[in-house]
From TrEMBL:
<feature type="transmembrane region" description="Helical">
    <location>
        <begin position="236"/>
        <end position="254"/>
    </location>
</feature>
<feature type="transmembrane region" description="Helical">
    <location>
        <begin position="287"/>
        <end position="311"/>
    </location>
</feature>
<feature type="transmembrane region" description="Helical">
    <location>
        <begin position="205"/>
        <end position="224"/>
    </location>
</feature>
<keyword id="KW-0472">Membrane</keyword>
<feature type="transmembrane region" description="Helical">
    <location>
        <begin position="92"/>
        <end position="115"/>
    </location>
</feature>
<keyword id="KW-0812">Transmembrane</keyword>
<feature type="transmembrane region" description="Helical">
    <location>
        <begin position="121"/>
        <end position="141"/>
    </location>
</feature>
<protein>
    <recommendedName>
        <fullName>Manganese transporter</fullName>
    </recommendedName>
</protein>
<feature type="transmembrane region" description="Helical">
    <location>
        <begin position="148"/>
        <end position="168"/>
    </location>
</feature>
<feature type="transmembrane region" description="Helical">
    <location>
        <begin position="52"/>
        <end position="72"/>
    </location>
</feature>
<dbReference type="InterPro" id="IPR021552">
    <property type="entry name" value="ArsP_2"/>
</dbReference>
<keyword id="KW-1133">Transmembrane helix</keyword>
<feature type="transmembrane region" description="Helical">
    <location>
        <begin position="375"/>
        <end position="398"/>
    </location>
</feature>
<dbReference type="Pfam" id="PF11449">
    <property type="entry name" value="ArsP_2"/>
</dbReference>
<feature type="transmembrane region" description="Helical">
    <location>
        <begin position="318"/>
        <end position="339"/>
    </location>
</feature>
Length: 400
């Protein structure tokens, strides 16, 4: 009773609720600043954050900007979506193609179409098998030749999986009865002003940084000494990259509260009417946050714990494709970005990346779990079968 009277007597701006740790994402930029200010970790942090910004974020942002600008000129209700309703055979093909689109938008479209009764269960299996979620952006930006190969493989495997499922089940297999609706995960009224401001600033940040960043990234890719070229002091471009990384992560940390597992590993909600650069900025910072965590974990463990991840995982040998598959079963894009980061760093083999790409369902699994949990569970198990077969086929044919 006393605490209730105390709370009510406090001014609104001093109420205890104002001090709840709402933006737990702030842990990341605070940690980055701590690493940069400590003499022990400063050099490692500068080089790691600089590499993450120039070699990853810049390419991802550029790829995403092109993707969202192209999407701007494609009608939301286009022929691909309308052709879903013509036959079970075409449903599977177009579902696999929509799933192959980087990000989770295509898979979420098919998920909603299944729940509303417009496509069959085979289409759900096809789209969940072919989708890579946001990890596709990272792989395409960093290793485009491998990225396109994995995406194309996902389409083929998705089509075959969907057609096989159509032979086994009717279209309405495990479809929920009645109309289901998902709850909005948008920001609360208390935090919407802060979050919207941070979202807008993310777009402004990448609007001004995109072209210079991609130019520096390209120079670095061609082994040009940018510091010498621009007459910058030693580690000048590295410090600039680290600083820009901290700013981008600070803005990202204020755009969404962490309330549960989904809000941690799923990409932020984006308005359909947002500018393409705004959408690209939100996706880029989400992907970058997970990449930074992976890169710093590798570097800190390698330097201070003397852990060589390439050697460590090399001992896993035959278990690596299974490990990639198992992580792929986790809903959300965050864990899948970590697997792709492992592959790009050389710590995980391509077979693990392939099995993860086929088994992972990205953010599309969240609405499926909410609206049709039984269908989500069975469809995920079905996508794990080709992931196991293809992942281990590649391992035995090319990696031993």
């Amino acid at each position: 009773m006393h605490s209730m009277r105390l709370s009510s007597s406090l001014p609104q701006w001093l109420s205890l609720g104002q001090f709840r740790p709402a933006y737990k994402r702030l842990i990341l930029p605070v940690m980055l600043l701590a690493l940069l200010t400590s003499e022990t970790t400063r050099e490692l942090a500068v080089n790691t954050l600089s590499d993450a910004f120039w070699a990853v974020s810049a390419y991802v942002a550029f790829t995403l900007a092109i993707y969202h600008y192209v999407s701007l000129y494609v009608s939301k209700e286009n022929k691909l979506v309308n052709l879903f309703h013509r036959s079970r055979h075409y449903q599977v093909i177009f579902a696999a193609l929509l799933g192959a689109l980087p990000g989770c938008g295509g898979a979420i479209i098919v998920t909603s179409q299944f729940v509303s009764g417009r496509v069959g269960f085979g289409a759900i299996v096809a789209v969940l098998t072919s989708t890579m979620g946001d990890a596709a952006f990272l792989l395409l930006a960093s290793k485009p030749e491998i990225g396109f190969m994995v995406v194309a493989l996902g389409v083929v495997v998705g089509c075959v999986s969907g057609w096989v499922v159509n032979l086994l089940h009717n279209d309405d297999f495990l479809r929920p009865d009645g109309n289901s609706t998902s709850n909005s995960n948008g920001p609360t009224s208390e935090s919407s002003n802060i979050e919207q401001t941070a979202i807008n600033l993310q777009g402004a940040f990448w609007k001004w940084c995109l072209i210079p960043a991609i130019m520096v990234a390209l120079l670095g890719s061609f082994q040009v000494d940018v510091n010498a070229l621009l007459s910058l002091p030693t580690l000048g471009i590295e410090w600039l990259g680290a600083g820009l990384m901290v700013i981008s992560m600070l803005l990202w940390s204020l755009t969404k509260e962490i309330k549960d597992y989904e809000s941690t590993v799923a990409e932020d909600n984006k308005s359909l009417s947002s500018h393409p650069l705004q959408k690209a900025a939100q996706d880029t910072n989400f992907i970058t946050a997970w990449v930074v965590v992976a890169f710093l974990t590798f570097e800190l463990a390698s330097t201070f714990a003397d852990v060589n991840f390439a050697i460590l995982f090399s001992h896993w040998g035959i278990w690596m494709p299974l490990a990639g598959l198992a992580i792929g079963l986790l809903p959300g894009c965050g864990p899948q970005i970590l697997v792709t980061s492992l592959y790009l760093s050389g710590a995980a083999p391509l077979s693990a990346q392939i099995s993860n790409a086929i088994s992972n369902d990205g953010d599309a699994l969240f609405p499926m779990i909410a609206l049709a949990p039984k269908a989500a569970f069975i469809a995920t198990l079905y996508s794990a079968i080709p992931a196991f077969v293809i992942g281990y086929s590649f391992y035995f044919l090319f990696e031993i």
